[in-house]
Amino acid sequence: MKIALFSQEFNEDVKSIFDKIINNKFSENLSFFLHKDLNIKEFDFSNKSYFKYSKASDLKDEVDLLISLGGDGTFLRSIEYVQNNNIPILGINTGRLGFLASTKKENIEKSIEKIFNKKFKIEERSLIKVSLESGEQFDSQFPYALNEISVVRKDTTSMVNINTSLNGVHLNSYWSDGLIVSTPTGSTGYSLSCGGPVISPSSESLVLTPISPHNLNARPLVISDSTKISISVSGREEYHLLSVDSNVYTVKNETQILVEKSDFNIKVANLN
């Protein structure tokens, strides 16, 4: 079995779990792929094979499972190293929030046994893709989100006007602080905190959730995930912010932002 390990920080909790993963009775015949930023000098790999990776192509056709050590932010970032390679991601929560994790650090001993005996189920989770109609790049090598994309005001306390169309037909002009487009997975995240509904991960839907809208009739809207969404922002400032999961970009106002379902899914390993 070949396992990739990913974490954004190497704190004591991560170090402890890392040690348990690489030094247990099930790990004799394992190969490990370690992110280039992981500091492994204090661990003994003398009897184990390991490789370094820095991009998704390093793992393609090489890895059976990627283990994300951290919170939801770490899990979301790990997707960039899986992309469309059909590698399941298993989250071990060491952070404050762990909606995406399959297990917690407190259950690591039992979890390791299940992982290395491949006693986990695979769930398919949809992604959404973001592009700019002008073809202009927003400095993203992976313009996909598992949770949500959002457009929000920048450098101003004034609300912005967010013109939104579905399949080329005008839906609404949201006078608000911003707008969230959420996947079913992301319905328990930012969208939920702004009054959006919780949606089953298997539902083929997206949610549009305005952020602090001034329109009395502006409410969260559930739509089919086959819908193509077009968004443009106007307001007093020249730019606004576009977030794609945990990545944030500055986009010029009046730019057409296109949002649609990705043509591939992410596989999530679930121990429950």
Please explain how this structure is put together.
- It is a single chain.
- With 272 residues, this protein is mainly beta.
- It contains four helices and 20 strands.
- The strands form four sheets. It has a six-stranded parallel β-sheet with strand order 3-2-1-4-5-6, sandwiched between helices.
- A hairpin with a 2-residue loop joins β17 and β18.
- The longest helix is centred in the N-terminal third of the chain and has 11 residues.
- The protein is elongated, with a radius of gyration of 20 Å.
- The protein starts with a strand and ends with a strand.
- 37% of the residues are buried.
- The model has no long low-confidence stretch (mean pLDDT 88).
